[in-house]
Specification:
By secondary structure, this protein is α+β, with helices and mostly antiparallel strands. It has 8 helices and 5 strands; from the N terminus they run ββαβααααααββα. The strands form 2 sheets. It has a 3-stranded mixed sheet with strand order 1-2-3. Strands 4-5 form a two-stranded antiparallel ribbon. A hairpin with a 5-residue loop joins β4 and β5. α5 packs across α6. The two termini are 49 Å apart.
Length: 201
């Protein structure tokens, strides 16, 4: 399964212009390295799995994703200037130059091999929104308005994530470390503002 690595940045002269660079490859290292090779104003580079090592070989050693400036300096001082030379080098020598684990990783990545798996980011189990009053708030209408604002923020956050709330917890903290907390469950999971508002009120 191909790995896609994307990066973007605003390009001059207009901040409205977005430079998007997408690398596609058989591993995180190849895809990320490919995306870094794209010149402005952006584009897509796809590396065939069978061509990864050949494509990487002529690149400067510091272009390989995962190689930092100090590592690149150590490799260049030893005469390893390209990714191809790094791939062809003796793994024991590379480990001596960069350290055991770092050397093994660098040698493998130079050959187009990367054991890092792509793990989808799991969504947080809870969504939190907050409101802080800049002074004592004893006005019930002001407090309810703030609560309504929090409900709208929470509903929007949940819908953006594609999640629904099963329960709602309200926490109030007061000056002097006092406070209270109450939790109520919804009849059924929901991300609708009205459901959250009724339960919050």
């Amino acid at each position: 399964m191909p790995v896609v690595w994307a990066r973007s940045c605003a390009c001059a002269p207009s901040p409205a212009c977005v430079d998007v660079r997408v690398g596609v490859g058989p591993s995180i290292t190849v895809a990320a390295t490919a995306s870094a090779q794209i010149q402005p104003p952006g584009g897509v580079v796809a590396i065939d799995p069978g061509q990864a090592a050949q494509w990487l070989a002529p690149l400067p050693v510091d272009a390989l994703h995962g190689i930092g400036p100090r590592q690149a300096d150590a490799l260049r001082d030893y005469g390893i200037h390209t990714v191809g030379l790094l791939a062809a080098g003796d793994p024991a020598t590379v480990q001596r130059l960069l350290g055991g684990r770092a050397g093994r990783l660098a040698a493998d990545r130079a050959r187009g091999m990367d054991s890092c798996s792509v793990v989808p980011r799991t969504l947080p189990a809870a969504a939190t929104v907050r409101c802080a009053f800049d002074r004592h708030a004893l006005d019930g209408a002001a407090v309810r308005a703030a609560l309504l604002g929090l409900v709208v923020q929470l509903g929007l956050l949940l819908r953006r994530r594609g999640q629904a709330a099963r329960a709602l917890t309200l926490t109030s903290k007061f000056v002097g470390n006092g406070g209270w907390e109450r939790t109520r469950r919804l009849k059924e999971p929901s991300a609708h503002d009205e459901d959250l508002r009724v339960l919050a009120y």
